[in-house]
Write a structure and sequence with these properties.
- The protein has helices at about 20-25, 40-55, 65-80, 85-100.
- The chain is mainly alpha-helical.
- It starts with 18 loop residues before the first helix and ends in a 9-residue tail after the last helix.
Amino acid sequence: MASKPKKKMAKKRPSGRKWSAAVMKRSDAMDLEEGVFKKRTARQIALSLKRSVEHSSRRKSPPFRSAMSMLNFEINRGGKNLSAERRHVLNQAKQELRKVFHRQPATPR
């Protein structure tokens, strides 16, 4: 009798391994202030991002683009775990970031 071929099992990631945490630590995006995304107001977050991006020697894109990219990354990283209040503050930070960089407001879709 011929034996059945064994099915390959999907490999599981070791628990606790988060690719997004590694991106934040080792990315060449830019150097951020400690706790920038934990600040209470959207204005504080936007100003902190602006300071960080202007002083960073690791970014490759223009300052506004790098700052917005990091903010979007944080929002996406939080996903479903972000409270509605926190998501609102981070989305308001996008508007504030546009103001501090003297950019046009986003057009509604």
